[in-house]
Design a protein that fits this description.
The protein is of the alpha+beta class and 79 residues long. It contains one helix and six strands. It has one domain.
Length: 79
């Protein structure tokens, strides 16, 4: 699903995340981290990078704009 960047994506994000949690694809309980705009992400969530940051190692390659990442685990260090 793609949402238009000039529209409020918050409501869409929450509905999609709720559906993914319902189907067991995203953790409903357990640890979470705060990401952009104060949103929460937990194990199973997919994130799309919106900026290049070549100082960050993303599975062996520099973090690049539009790269899709999946949260596999959240450790105490990440929180």
């Amino acid at each position: 699903m793609t949402a238009q960047p000039d529209r409020d994506q918050g409501g869409t994000d929450c509905r999609v995340r709720g559906n993914l949690q319902h189907f067991g694809l995203v953790a409903r309980d357990g640890p979470w981290i705060q990401i952009a705009d104060g949103q929460r992400a937990s194990v199973g969530d997919l994130l799309v990078c919106t900026e290049n940051d070549h100082s960050v190692d993303a599975a062996g390659v520099p973090l690049a704009n539009k790269r899709l990442l999946r949260i596999e685990a959240i450790t105490a260090r990440a929180r």
